[in-house]
């Protein structure tokens, strides 16, 4: 088990950038694949980006490809999501999550942070 705490959310104008961070507790962080998900009001939680255990392999939802970058620093037990060229439709609560599987399915992730709000104004 890992405990996850997100930070870095906020209000930004369309076209702007934000960097989310997710700090993990425990000594097993490097054994987990990490993902970022988001949930907008009235919508289901959806996959945004994922990174494998070493940080060498990443994958992204089509809606964020070319704009968002996920990375991790295993020495700092932290995963990041750099979000550029933000759009109003990116507005959501963003969650980081840990999984033994490198996958995009919500059900495969069993460790979740509390979420951080990202609001993109038009």
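^ Assign residues to that structure.
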């Amino acid at each position: 088990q890992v405990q996850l705490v997100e930070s870095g959310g906020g209000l930004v104008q369309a076209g702007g950038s934000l960097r989310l961070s997710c700090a993990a507790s425990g000594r097993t962080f490097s054994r987990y694949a990490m993902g970022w998900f988001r949930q907008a009001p009235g919508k289901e939680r959806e996959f945004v980006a994922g990174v494998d255990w070493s940080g060498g392999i990443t994958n992204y939802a089509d809606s964020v490809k070319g704009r968002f970058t996920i990375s991790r620093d295993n020495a700092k037990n932290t995963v990041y999501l750099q979000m550029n060229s933000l759009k109003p439709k990116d507005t959501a609560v963003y969650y980081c999550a840990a999984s033994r599987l490198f996958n995009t399915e919500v059900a495969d992730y069993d460790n979740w942070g509390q979420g951080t709000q990202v609001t993109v104004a038009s």
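The chain has no helices and eleven strands.
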